[in-house]
Write a structure and sequence with these properties.
Blueprint lengths: L7 E4 L3 H12 L4 E4 L15 E2 L7 H20 L6 E2 L3 E3 L6 H13 L5 E3 L1 H7 L13 E4 L3 E3 L1 H14 L3 E3 L6 E5 L2 E6 L5 E3 L2 E4 L5 H7 L10 E7 L9 E3 L4 E4 L5 E4 L8 E3 L2 E3 L2 H13 L9 E8 L9 E4 L6 E5 L3 H18 L16
Parallel strand pairs: 1-2, 1-13, 2-9, 5-15, 13-22
Antiparallel strand pairs: 3-8, 4-8, 5-7, 6-7, 10-11, 11-12, 14-17, 14-20, 15-16, 16-17, 18-19, 21-22
Helix pairs in contact: 1-5, 1-8, 2-8
């Protein structure tokens, strides 16, 4: 039976766009997903993709992230044995001179019902096989057993298959897209080739490009997006299965036996190069050396490849999710926590689009807060 719902176009082939398009298709909406290049070719393809709600944040943001983790647990139950979604916990620590801050983080997590354990170096190594206890500061570490990680390209492949099976239309390599408006409402999306896809609702889920695209439509979205580096190693012999978040390196396993590694300090060494970015080889080597120091036996880590590009972060740090007031039918999806929120954000945006009713969990994150 042909859907009677108005057509929707989702712009952006990252995990937020794919999830939203998939939920729309499952809801029976006629939906087209338009992406500039390949799926997950930008931020979603170079994300540490740590699934968590660790650290201090607002109660509303915490609840949204917990709901996001819940959806992943449901998916893991229905897809047992997949190698791209794991819940083996997360271990984090700060430098010794920030020990009080780490203790406050632990107490904040406990107060919100988030499973959190403060461990000494020996306890940390016992809880997380593969960690060198000598790498853990004597001031301790926080262990969150309920955390996990997801390989976003693998998740995208899974979701896009379901999207297609429910009648969704996919258009890749469309080039930069433009939202077309008429009388204060969206009318569709025009691709770089000039092809117009009519729509009564458009979702902008273009990662770091959202603020500029929204600004051209008169919708203000403050932006704090940095450029970041993610290094993926060749397979390494380590029992590590958890996510590690430490001052000099954060890492987690990959489905192919390697490690994904990043760190904020590398950003200062990234330089523009042609149409993209580059980083000195010695910075990649230093990052991998820092990661090796965290692991028992200090295995030699070799880079298989590295990726550099903008990491989407809204100006106030909180997600930007929901319908805009300025342009009827225009919805935004822009957040630093794209991995954790991907499934729940797509679900709740679909609810808003298909029912025309704001969802209470998205109300604190609506772009109208910037007006």
């Amino acid at each position: 039976m042909r859907s009677t719902q108005a057509p929707v176009v989702v712009v952006g082939g990252g995990i937020l766009g794919i999830s939203t398009a998939r939920h729309l298709a499952r809801a029976g909406a006629p939906v087209t997903l338009v992406t500039e290049g390949e799926l997950t070719s930008n931020a979603s393809g170079r994300s540490l993709s740590w699934l968590n709600s660790a650290g201090p944040r607002s109660e509303e943001y915490h609840r949204l992230r917990i709901a996001g983790i819940d959806r992943y647990r449901t998916l893991a139950t229905r897809q047992p044995g997949v190698d791209w979604l794991r819940f083996d916990g997360g271990l984090a620590w700060l430098p010794e001179d920030r020990a009080p801050e780490l203790r406050q983080q632990h107490e904040h997590e406990l107060a919100h019902g988030y499973e959190s354990h403060f461990l000494d170096p020996g306890g940390a190594a016992a809880a997380v096989p593969g960690v060198d206890p000598a790498a853990v500061p004597p001031t301790g570490a926080v262990w969150n057993p309920g955390e996990g990680w997801v390989d976003l390209p693998s998740l995208a492949e899974f979701l896009i298959k379901d999207f297609a099976e429910h009648g969704g239309q996919l258009l890749t390599h469309a080039g930069p897209a433009e939202v077309v408006t008429a009388d204060g409402a969206v009318a569709g999306v025009r691709t770089a080739a000039g092809e117009l896809h009519p729509a009564r609702a458009v979702v902008l889920a273009t990662g770091p490009a959202v603020p500029a695209m929204a600004s051209r439509l008169g919708v203000p979205v403050p932006d704090a997006t940095p450029v970041s580096l993610l290094v993926t190693t060749t397979p390494v012999d380590t029992p590590l299965r958890a996510v590690l978040n430490t001052p000099r390196a954060s890492l987690r396993p990959t489905p192919h036996g390697g490690l994904a590694v990043d760190a904020d300090w590398t950003t200062a060494s990234i330089r523009p190069a042609g149409d993209g970015f580059d980083v000195p080889a010695e910075i990649v080597a230093e990052l991998l050396a820092e990661a090796s120091r965290l692991l028992a036996g200090h295995p030699h880590l070799t880079a298989a490849h590295h990726a550099i590009g903008p990491k989407p972060i809204p100006g106030d740090g909180d997600p930007v999710l929901g319908r805009t007031d300025e342009i009827a039918g225009l919805y935004l999806a822009f957040t630093h926590s794209g991995a954790t929120l991907a499934l729940i954000a797509g679900e709740l945006l679909t609810y808003e689009i298909t029912t025309g009713t704001p969802h209470p969990m998205l109300a604190p994150f609506n772009p109208r807060r910037f007006r």
